[in-house]
Design a protein that fits this description.
alpha/beta, Rossmann fold, binds guanosine-5'-triphosphate, 7 helices, globular, 21% strand, binds magnesium ion, 241 residues
Length: 241
């Protein structure tokens, strides 16, 4: 993996991309992360942009820029993450290509809705082709299965998702791919976050920031892939130093 680029403040920057079919929940997951960061540490959210069409589907990309490990001695973060989502609709393939350029960590968002099975398949195949064509073979990835709040009869069984990962080459590429599937529900996370905000005794520290230990389990689940992939990118950087 190439060395991390630095921004104008000389802070190392990591580029992460949420990949997946339209409606899988990429914009929602990134928005939940942004809301949580804003509540816990507003200074760590540098920018957040979503570009949607009138049907609320991403048009070009979403992008959030977040700081991690602020050091008061230097007045700088130790790291910044630029986190993008691709537009999942089939017709936006060129935008996906542009947005994915230079990616250093991938969060693959699968939709457990039965009717979306084919779209998950298409998204996995297209990403495998991108990786092949653009030399992203060493880019670490995590796989998420969203919308686990839906009733079981409306969802594709996880075993079938695992089979799809094998069929599309994702579990061959990295042996443990399907054991890495993170099941989640952005909807539950959003509802729990809204519930938390409405509660009378919002657990805040002296600076009025939401305490990290009050993160609802559902929210932890949605942000886990971002934390995992950042850790992986940094570990692989250290290994190459
Ligand atoms: N039931 C349920 N619905 C969800 C969940 N996550 C997202 N949705 C819904 O799915 C729809 C699409 O979510 P988005 O986050 O906009 O999807 P996207 O992957 O960004 O889609 P594109 O921008 O078109 O690529 C929205 O109506 C969400 O409310 C979930 O966990 N459960
Ligand atoms: Mg979107």
């Amino acid at each position: 993996m190439e060395h991390l680029k630095k921004d104008f403040d000389e802070v190392p920057v990591v580029k992460l991309v949420f990949w997946g079919a339209s409606m899988a929940g990429k914009t929602m997951a990134l928005t939940i992360f942004k809301v949580l960061k804003t509540l816990e540490d507003p200074d760590s959210v540098y920018s957040f942009l979503t570009l949607e069409d009138p049907t609320k589907r991403t048009l070009f990309f979403d992008r959030g820029v977040f700081g991690f490990g602020y050091n008061p001695l230097t007045g700088k973060d130790r790291l910044k993450a630029h986190i993008y989502t691709v537009p999942g609709q089939l017709r936006h393939i060129t935008q996906r290509e542009v947005v994915t350029s230079g990616v250093q960590g991938l969060i693959i968002m699968l939709d457990s809705t039965k009717a979306q099975f084919k779209h998950n398949q298409t998204a996995l195949i297209e990403l495998a082709e991108f990786i092949e064509n653009y030399g992203y073979k060493d880019v670490p990835f995590v796989i998420c299965l969203n919308k686990m709040d839906l009733p079981a009869e409306e969802r594709t069984p996880v075993s079938q998702i695992s089979a799809l990962l094998v069929e599309t080459g994702w579990s061959e590429r990295i042996r443990d791919a399907h054991s890495r599937v993170i099941e989640m529900s952005c909807m539950d996370a959003k509802n729990d976050l809204v519930g938390l905000l409405k509660s009378q005794n919002l657990p805040k520290d002296n600076d009025g920031r939401l305490k990290k230990d009050s993160r609802p389990e559902t929210v932890k689940r949605v942000i886990m892939p971002i934390e995992m992939i950042l850790r992986e990118v940094l570990t692989s950087q250290l290994a190459h130093m």
